[in-house]
Design a protein that fits this description.
The chain is mainly β. Strands 6, 7, 8, 9 and 10 form a 5-stranded antiparallel beta sheet that branches. Strands 1-25-24-23 form a 4-stranded antiparallel beta sheet, with no helix packed on it. Strand 19 and strand 20 form a beta hairpin. The radius of gyration is 25 Å and the shape is globular. The N and C termini lie far apart (63 Å). About 6% of the residues have low confidence.
Length: 343
């Protein structure tokens, strides 16, 4: 009888372990759950007043939305102006500013917020003088305390440079600038270099970024772990975009080639540490693509309503949604759009 009681107690004590084992076995037998697919919640046109409205960026500043882009007669040529829009809800937009410089095509405006809480725009300053042939260029920067009144565009770096986007980190501005030398010089490669600035006006070289294949448009972001990541467009060789990672002091890079050609590349790190990118998707018809991103490559997730002349997104994570500004000509006129995505 005593032996019987011991056997019953042993079985009773083993019951929780048996149940746990059965649950683990059942879970292992089930197919792996797929990651939720990104979903487009809304797409709306926010501006089409210019003849050609393109090359957008988007930011939250002083509890408002701000969107900037270039207005001109066409994709290339003419004296492009920088339009700045603002909105409280992302639905109703108004013009806050129109920035121009005589005989200069202001292109690809990009936002950032300075350590003293001013909006900053960096843009290309190209010279066409009524033609479609590039005769010179030099980057411009401008600043605003309220998004409506802006300083006059100021030249930075050197002739033929293009500082494509500025990212602030620990009180300093960082940007990747590419240089093709004098127009028509026949240079086989374009140079790409990392620069740093205390005020956005005077820039110091940090290191060359040894990217082959005529690198140009480059977005830099600092991750939560302090690493610097670069997403780079390339124009020759395979023409596939590169992703680079660098650790302080940011003088050495590790590069990976993606499977995709890029146009107007941008990316963002979400609060959960995942990376999401926006860029032009090339094919029979160009489209605005959103992709999962890692230091090794891009995984296309969805395309937004788009076509023809398109891409150059601004990306903002706000209230659990990814907000994407971009431009497209799929409805005939090249216009600016805003999409909200659930990831």
């Amino acid at each position: 009888m005593e032996a019987w009681d011991r056997g019953v107690r042993n079985i009773r004590d083993m019951k929780p372990l048996l149940i746990s084992s059965l649950l683990l076995f059942a879970a292992a037998a089930l197919p792996a759950a797929e990651s939720p697919r990104p979903q487009v919640l809304e797409v709306r046109k926010v501006w089409d007043a210019g003849a050609h409205n393109a090359f957008t960026d988007l930011i939250r500043f002083r509890d408002r939305w701000w969107c900037t882009f270039r207005e001109a007669d066409d994709h290339v040529g003419g004296d492009g102006k920088i339009r700045v829009l603002t909105s409280t809800d992302g639905k109703s937009w108004e013009s806050a500013a129109l920035i121009a410089e005589k005989d200069i095509d202001l292109r690809d405006p990009k936002f950032s917020v300075t350590p003293d809480n001013r909006l900053m725009i960096v843009a290309g300053g190209s010279v066409y003088l009524g033609t479609k042939q590039l005769k010179g260029r030099q980057p411009r920067v401008m600043f605003s305390a309220d998004g409506r009144e802006w300083t006059a565009p100021q030249k930075v770096l050197g002739e033929h440079d293009w500082l494509w986007r500025v990212t602030w980190y620990q009180g300093k501005a960082y940007g990747a600038a590419y240089n093709i030398g004098a127009p028509g010089n026949g240079a086989p490669e374009w140079s790409l270099k990392l620069y740093r600035s205390d005020d956005g006006l005077k820039w110091d070289l940090v290191s060359p970024m040894e990217v082959s294949g005529r690198p140009n448009e480059t977005t830099l972001r600092f991750l939560k772990n302090g690493e610097l990541v670069a997403l780079v467009r390339r124009e020759s060789g395979s023409t596939r975009g590169w992703i680079g990672v660098s650790k302080p002091p940011f003088t050495r890079w590790t590069w990976h080639e993606t499977d995709h050609r890029l146009g107007g590349p941008n990316f963002i790190e979400l609060p959960n540490g995942t990376l999401w990118a926006g860029t032009r998707k090339y094919g029979k018809s160009a489209q605005m693509m959103v992709a999962r991103m890692s230091p090794d490559g891009l995984e296309p997730a969805l395309t937004l309503p788009s076509g023809g002349d398109t891409s150059y997104p601004g990306l903002v994570w706000h209230e659990g949604r990814l907000w994407v500004s971009y431009y497209s000509s799929h409805e005939g006129k090249t216009s600016v759009y805003l999409a909200t995505l659930r990831l």
